[in-house]
Amino acid sequence: MTHTLRHLAALVLLLVAGTVLMAQSPQKFNYQAVVRNAANQLVRSQQVGVRISISKDEANNDIVFQETHRPTTNANGLFSVQVGTGTSVYGALADIDWTDGPYFLTSDIDITGGSSYTISVSQQLLSVPYALHCDEVQSLEDVVARDNHAGMKQLKDVKDPTDPQDAVTKYYLDSVINAFTVVMYSPTRAMIDTACDSYTWSVDHETYTQSGAYLYTKKDACGAGCDSIITLRLTILKTTPKVLEKYNCGESSYRWDADGENGTHGDGETHTEAGTYLGTVYNQTLSGRSCPTRDTLHLSFGSNSVGYHDATKCDSYFWPDNTTNYTASTEAGAYPSATLKNAEGCDSTVYLRLTINKNEGVAEAATICSGGSYNWFGTEYSSTEILRHSFLDANGCSGDSVLSLVVVDAPSVRINELVGGVR
What we know:
The chain is mainly beta.
């Protein structure tokens, strides 16, 4: 590609100057951008401050070139500058080694025309503008000899050829001139825009719903490799429409007023069928911009219902429907209740009919003599102690039998032998 661009540069310079055979590519290129203020309004016919930086990193830390401009936007908010012709801040465009890329271009903008830059756009230079890395141009003979079969023969009339050889040469010259023109004017553009909820870009006809940077590559129709890179810096403002879930119970119609329930903006209509409805359009102010939005109504019709919940438990029962713990049975006519939603979304009153069973357990006492034992639930015991045994009653409730076991010494009897009736 470098070799080809050498010939292209030589050809253009020779056609323009006629005698210049050694030169450099122009050290400048075009840059355009559309400017909007914080209210998303185009900054029209106004001088703006622009700082252009070229760096080797996207964060704009390793700057190799920087300059400032003060262009005036047109009626569409568009400004154009030639990078390389501004007020120099750092470096020179001619000193950049374009083969040592990648390079990134950052434009900082002050819409008041000063140097307090509040808008910043950065993008990678995907192709070298103006073919700035062309080396020294070569002779016209080199250009003519390339793919046109003219060899080193003298040309007669390239402008209006009658000789077949001249005609072939003119065709070749026209083709490379057109290709070079594309290289010279291949634009790199940045667009800044803000939209509510979604944005359809007229460049690629895609619809975007998220903020971000989007790139579009416009292919070079001439095949010279000079594609246009267009960057969209997009801010999407998200509206927050309300959603009303309405269960119209025991009624045959529902009117959604403009000043509707839960702060919604209704359509002012009376609805007799279940369905989804959109309210009137109203504006939400986001970042100083008015964004239209519409609330939504999900409407259903149904009837309230009544039911019972029966339960039999031991000792206590926690009813999750009304988050209450019960320790006694409920009585007829005084059932506690809970209000739930039925399948139609309407109130369902549920009454609890509860039976609480209690196992009070059994208390026993026993006394045995020392040296003896006591059998309790299949186990022999021979010491004084309090014993417990858990069991289930006929209702399946758990209780304890408690045994108080006492061991006592056996009484001792002394028998004196009587002798002669005398003790």
